[in-house]
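Worked example 3 (structure in, sequence out).
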């Protein structure tokens, strides 16, 4: 165990989510352009995005969320064994693609959202409770795509931050994703 970052070795975490957006400027802006490389816009463009989200998060451990290296006073107050939440809400944000030299696209997006979540809590003594809470989330996405006509490369990273409350504590949950794509188009010149 690292002294600076103690860990709970038996913790199990599951996060599943669904996000959908309506793109208001879909004639000029492509959310997929820098990631999937199926279109190559000639100029930069952006759009307001209106969407919805649904997330399920579940974290559990028999030993409790606070590692044994912490004082008993903290462990007795923060006595969680399991917490799961189902969150649903709406989000509105903005995304923009910068086109450089007609070969390179840099895409950025920030999409905050607000909604409702149902949180199920189980403590170390097996007491259980359900709370209804407001939820806030923000999805931040960045991507870079380069295209030569037949060859294309892209990288994409995204992080989604969410919150859950327990007693006087706030959990910051996040889901991160990073993707690298390289491809070659056979028999067709994309440009």
């Amino acid at each position: 165990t690292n002294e600076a970052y103690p860990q709970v070795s038996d913790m199990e975490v599951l996060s599943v989510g669904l996000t959908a957006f309506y793109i208001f400027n879909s004639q000029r802006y492509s959310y997929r352009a820098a990631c999937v490389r199926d279109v190559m816009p000639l100029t930069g463009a952006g759009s307001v995005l209106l969407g919805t989200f649904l997330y399920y998060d579940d974290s559990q451990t028999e030993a409790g969320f606070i590692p044994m290296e912490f004082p008993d006073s903290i462990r007795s107050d923060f006595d969680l064994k399991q917490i799961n939440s189902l969150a649903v809400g709406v989000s509105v944000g903005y995304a923009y693609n910068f086109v450089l030299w007609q070969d390179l696209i840099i895409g950025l997006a920030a999409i905050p959202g607000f909604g409702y979540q149902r949180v199920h809590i189980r403590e170390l003594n097996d007491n259980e409770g359900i709370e209804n809470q407001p939820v806030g989330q923000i999805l931040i996405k960045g991507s870079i795509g380069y295209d030569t006509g037949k060859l294309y490369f892209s990288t994409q990273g995204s992080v989604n931050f969410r919150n859950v409350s327990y007693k006087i504590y706030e959990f910051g949950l996040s889901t991160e994703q990073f993707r690298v794509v390289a491809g070659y188009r056979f028999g067709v010149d994309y440009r």
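Notes: Residues 72-77 form the longest helix (6 residues). The longest strand covers residues 80-100.
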